[in-house]
Amino acid sequence: MSHFRVNWQRKAVYCPQGKRSRLWKNSHDSYGKPIIHVEFRKSHCSACSVRSQCTRAPVNPRGLTLMIQDEYEALVNARQRQTTAEFKQQYSLRSGIEGTISQGIRGFNLRQCRYIGLRKTRLQHILTAAAINLERIYAWLEEIPLAKTRISHFQKLANRKLAIA
Ligand code: SF4
User: Does 150 share its domain with 115?
Assistant: First the structure.
């Protein structure tokens, strides 16, 4: 997606090969959220030398789904910000809390609320936090080693590909 250039005034998208889209259609996704459907010309995509890198569709031309302008630009800016050293430093603070959230979800069913109402839900969260603390104290006393950071299947594949290259 980052290789495509969007011109919001002209309601057009330019692909990495410099071709202009032929269709720009305002639509909605299944949740009713406004989106824009974009499509390129079949004649351009059929004859394109990098087609296999661009689309897996056997015959149809490349299509794109865009968010509306404000959301799209906010996302692009956020992705840009994520590449900065400042962001990485800020985000590193989350590494501890991500592990705690994961433990709460996997070990203590944190995603499921057992009660109705905010007060009871808050009580459940406090009890869950206390249970996590107890389990951690037990693990510390028993010298149970910390679990290694999980690597997603996709990341494993990417690492393997890098190692082969
Ligand atoms: S397949 Fe179509 S959209 Fe993709 S780069 Fe080629 S011409 Fe552009």
Answer: yes
- Report the predicted TM-score, pTM, of the whole model to 2 decimal places: 0.63
Task: Give the number of C-alpha atoms closer than 13 A to the C-alpha of residue 70, restricted to the C-beta side.
Answer: 1
Tens digits of residue pLDDT in 56-71: 999 999 999 999 999 9
Q: Which of 58, 81, 104 is the last residue of a domain?
A: 81
Residue 12 lies in a domain: yes
Residues with CB under 6 A from ligand 1: 15-17, 19, 40, 44-45, 48, 50-51, 54-55, 61-62
Measured in residues, the chain has a length of 165
Query: Counting beta carbons within 10 angstroms of the beta carbon of residue 124, is it exposed (0 to 12), middle (13 to 18) or buried (19 or more)?
Result: middle
User: Domain ends where: 81, 113, 135?
Assistant: 81
